[in-house]
Design brief:
- The structure is a single chain.
- This protein has a domain of about 240 residues: NAD(P)-binding Rossmann-like Domain (Rossmann fold), CATH 3.40.50.
- By secondary structure, it is of the alpha/beta class.
- The longest helix has 22 residues.
- It is built from twelve helices and 13 strands.
C-alpha cells in the first residue's frame, strides 16, 4: 500500500518526458510528492508530457544521463528520498541504427545514476526500470521468471541486460544490506500501451496516427503475440516496490516482473480487432512480406508470481479495459475538445485506482 508513502517526499524521475515517465510523474504529483524530472529532451511531437503540460506542474530539468558530473550534481542538489530511473533509449529499431548510443545511454547511464546515489550521502530508495527484453528470449510458451538467464539478440535487449549487471555490482559492492543507505529494486515490464504514447514503431501509436488522419495503418507482424498491459499497471508495481523498499530491506537488490495476467497474451491482430470497437473507420494492412524488418521476438511472456508473493502486487485491468482506456484517451486528444488533457489523464489514474479498489487489489486499499 503506497497511498501515503510518497506524500511530502522528494522524488526524482529520470526520463520524465517519456511515455511511462510522464504518467509516473503525474501519479506521484497526485500522491502529494515533490516531483523532480530529468530528461535530455522531449523525444516525440506530440507527447504525453506536452499534452498534459507537465512541465508547469513539476520541477523540470534537462540533462544527459551519460554525463556523470551532471547526474551527480543533480542528485546531490536535490537529495531525493526516492529515485525512479526510467531514462533510456527505448526503441529496438533505433538500437540497430545506433547501437553505441543505445548501450551508453542504457548501461552507462544507469551506472551514472547508481554512482551518484553512492556518493550523495543520505538514505534513498531507487527503483531502476530495465525491461522484459533483458531476458535471453528463446520464445518458450511459459513466462520468464526473475532468475532466468539475461541476454539479448539485439543491441537494445543487450543494453538492458548490461544495466542489470551494473545494478548487481553496485548492490553487492556498495549497497549491502548491512549498510544500505541506498536501497535498490529492479523492475522489468514491457509492451505497455496507453494514452499519450507517440514513440516510433509502436502498434497502437501507428494505428492512432493513421486512423486520426483516415489513413491505412501498416502492420508489420500481425501474428506476433505480446503481454499487452496498460501503462498504469507496471507503474502501480513500481510504486509498490518503492514503498516496500522504503519500509523493509528484505527485498533490497531484488528484480521483479510486472505484467498482465498469464492468459492476457494476444496477437497484434487481436489487439487491432479490439481497438476497432472504440474507433470508427479502422483500416490496416499486413506489410510483413513487403519490407525487410529487424529481428523481433514473436513471443514474450512474464511470470509475475514473485511480485504477488513478495509485494502483494497484481494487475487490475483485463484486456478489454486496457484497450478501451487507451483508445478513448487518443479519441479525446484527436477528436475531443482538449481543454485539459491533464485533467483527463488524472481522471484515468483515478478511474484505475477505483477499479483496483473494487477488485480488492492490495495497494489501492486505504
Amino acid at each position: 500500500m503506497f497511498n501515503s508513502c510518497y506524500e511530502g517526499k522528494k522524488v526524482l524521475i529520470t526520463g520524465h518526458t517519456g511515455f511511462k515517465g510522464s504518467w509516473l510523474s503525474l501519479w506521484l504529483k497526485q500522491l502529494g510528492a515533490k516531483v523532480y524530472g530529468a530528461s535530455i529532451e522531449v523525444l516525440s511531437d506530440p507527447s504525453h508530457f506536452d499534452a498534459i503540460k507537465l512541465g508547469a506542474h513539476i520541477e523540470d530539468f534537462r540533462l544527459d544521463i551519460r554525463d556523470p558530473q551532471a547526474v551527480k550534481k543533480l542528485v546531490v542538489d536535490i537529495q531525493p528520498d526516492f529515485v525512479f530511473h526510467l531514462a533510456a533509449q527505448a526503441l529496438v529499431r533505433l538500437s540497430y541504427v545506433n547501437p553505441l548510443e543505445t548501450i551508453t545511454t542504457n548501461a552507462i547511464g544507469t551506472l551514472n545514476i547508481l554512482d551518484a546515489l553512492r556518493v550523495q550521502g543520505r538514505p534513498v530508495v531507487a527503483v531502476v526500470i530495465t525491461s522484459d527484453k533483458a531476458y535471453d528470449n528463446v520464445e518458450w510458451v511459459w513466462g520468464y521468471r526473475e532468475n532466468d538467464r539475461l541476454g539479448g539478440k539485439d543491441p537494445y535487449s543487450a543494453s538492458k541486460a548490461m544495466a542489470e549487471l551494473a545494478i548487481r555490482t553496485y548492490v553487492e559492492s556498495f549497497f549491502t544490506k548491512e549498510a544500505a543507505k541506498v536501497k535498490v529494486g529492479i523492475a522489468r515490464a514491457g509492451n505497455v500501451i496507453g494514452g499519450g504514447d507517440w514513440a516510433e514503431d509502436r502498434i497502437v501509436v501507428d494505428c492512432m496516427k493513421s486512423w486520426s488522419e483516415s489513413r491505412t495503418a501498416e502492420i508489420r507482424n500481425p501474428g506476433a503475440t505480446r503481454p499487452w498491459q496498460h501503462v498504469l499497471e507496471p507503474l502501480s508495481g513500481y510504486l509498490t516496490l518503492g514503498s516496500n523498499l522504503h519500509t523493509d530491506t528484505s527485498n533490497h537488490g531484488q528484480a521483479y516482473n510486472f505484467g498482465p495476467p498469464a492468459n492476457q497474451n494476444y496477437s497484434v491482430r487481436r489487439l487491432i480487432s479490439e481497438m476497432k470497437i472504440y474507433w470508427e473507420n479502422v483500416l490496416w494492412e499486413d506489410t510483413s512480406q513487403a519490407k525487410t524488418h529487424f529481428h523481433e521476438a514473436a513471443l514474450l511472456k512474464l511470470n509475475c508470481d514473485k511480485a504477488l508473493f513478495d509485494l502483494n502486487w497484481q494487475p487490475t485491468l483485463d484486456f478489454r479495459d486496457t484497450v478501451k482506456m487507451t483508445v478513448e484517451w487518443y479519441k479525446e486528444f484527436y477528436q475531443g475538445n482538449r481543454k485539459s488533457m491533464y485533467e483527463y489523464s488524472v481522471n484515468n489514474i483515478n478511474d484505475y485506482i477505483e477499479k483496483a479498489k473494487r477488485s480488492g487489489i492490495s495497494w489501492a486499499q486505504q
